[in-house]
Amino acid sequence: MTALFALGTSLLWGLADFGGGLLTRRLPALTVVVVSQSIAVVVLGAVVLATGAFDEAGPRLWYAVAAGVVGPVAMLAFYKALALGPMGVVSPLGSLGVVVPVGVGLMLGDRPGLLQFAGIAVAVLGVVLAGGPELRGAPVQRQAVLLTLVAAFGFGAVMALISEASTTLTGLFLALFVQRVANVAVGGAALWVSVRRGGRALPEDGGGLRAIAASLPALAFIGLADVAANGTYALAAQRGPVTVAAVLASLYPVVTALAARGVLKERLRAVQAAGAGLALVGTVLLATG
Fold it and tell me: Of the segments 65-69, 157-161, 268-272, which one has the largest average pLDDT value?
């Protein structure tokens, strides 16, 4: 079940990242973060009320609060990077954040077998290569790399924190709700500061609120897919070694790259195709090790 939940996480995150990258080419990144997470808060609030999850409140929720504070910073940096550079390059670099939960898992006593260690190494290498190492070029590309590395550390920290935020399914609903409330609070504050400093919350082309309204289905998908991915990752980490769950969940850049190939017709270079193949081999080793 660990492998199944973790692979589901990679699928959901990959599609959410693809959608977020597309939307930030039309809408300000902060607006995408705040609106998508606000939709998630409404849906999760209804789930929490329906399941009586408020009874699960306890000290562990501070992990969810911390994840909620770190998440918007990482998400904003990542969406800006996706808007600056090809998705097939930026997204794999973002997966380097896997070293955070893997390191935490090892410190907590996870001891993967030999095949699983090999799978971790092969999968991480494959995910990085799946983007093609195009790190040379214009300053905009270097800025995208820097933003992606900031996002990677943040994503890794969120993975480590959310896996510690609950021990039960209803507790997980509450933890995800608290995380999203913190996301909206931090993201909303950043959006307010940005507008006060002359930034924009609406598109420059004059579409205004109509553009956001037209994008609501996509924004809802991004917010809910991200929530679901956090949930499936937490379940994966609770049911098996964190090191294995974290690496399998971090295969999402392959999904993003394939979505970019299918929808945007971004061509996969030879190194990207080889990286995707290595990621698949690493997945098999992790699942069978």
Answer: 65-69
